[in-house]
Amino acid sequence: MSSIQYTKKIALIDCNSFYVSCERLFNPKIRKKPVVVLSNNDGCIISRSTEAKALGIKMGEPYFKAKDIIIKNKVEVFSSNYSLYGDLSRRVMRTLKRFNSAIEVYSIDEAFLDLSNFADSEVEKVGKEIRETVLKWTGIPTSIGIAKTKTLSKVANHIAKKKESGVTSLIGIENIDPILEKVEINDVWGVGRQLTKFYHKNGIYNAKQLKNKSNTWVKKNSNVLGSRTAMELRGI
């Protein structure tokens, strides 16, 4: 009899271009068009549709810098509407709770969900079901990454964003080094600008290189958070 495996599994559910997705819900005409949402005083770009990203509009860029591209390409521009976004965020989180009440809301558009109660072999299917349910009930598209630790589920989410299915599970993959090799060190959760510089100086350019650094080196050269990141990349 084959035994069903239940390992630790954490899903990171991330709403795609969240503020833009919220605006599109109430304005279907802008579904396939380039859209940006601006910060409070319309100073900076804080959300971009895929189409806007493709035009080279950068996240956090001041509006005046992107203005020429925006006008030339007829990009739809919205001022942020936080009461709307907050309301939709609560709806998304409530929907996620149906799958497990053990949910950790990380930001307005991201949450960690414990899926350890589902069998390893089912978890990708569950991910797809979560995604479909959220879309059906709230109208918000999401990307879902599933792995043994939060840091790895962030990596999985990063990959899921580029996939048609929108779901990536790293559960049951014996060797994740080839995957981690493609993740630049500054894209690893918790690695900021200073830490990136430090890692680069020490020849660490991707997640695989950090994962495979010796414990001694990691302990000696990084703070508690850095050590934790390295351990989490190992699935611990």
Fold and architecture overview:
Strand 2 (35-38) and strand 3 form a beta hairpin. The model has no long low-confidence stretch (mean pLDDT 92). The strands form 2 sheets. Strands 5-6-1-7-8 form a 5-stranded mixed sheet. Strands 3-2-4 form a 3-stranded mixed sheet. By secondary structure, it is α/β, with parallel strands linked by helices. The protein is globular and about 50 Å long. Helix 4 (82-97) crosses helix 5. The chain is built from 11 helices and 8 strands. The longest helix is centred in the middle third of the chain and has 16 residues, at 82-97. The chain is 43% helix and 16% strand.
Number of helices: 11
Mean pLDDT: 92
Shape: globular
Structural class, by secondary structure, is alpha/beta
Q: Name the poorly predicted regions.
A: none
What's the gyration radius in Å? 19 Å
Order of strands, main sheet, comes to 5-6-1-7-8
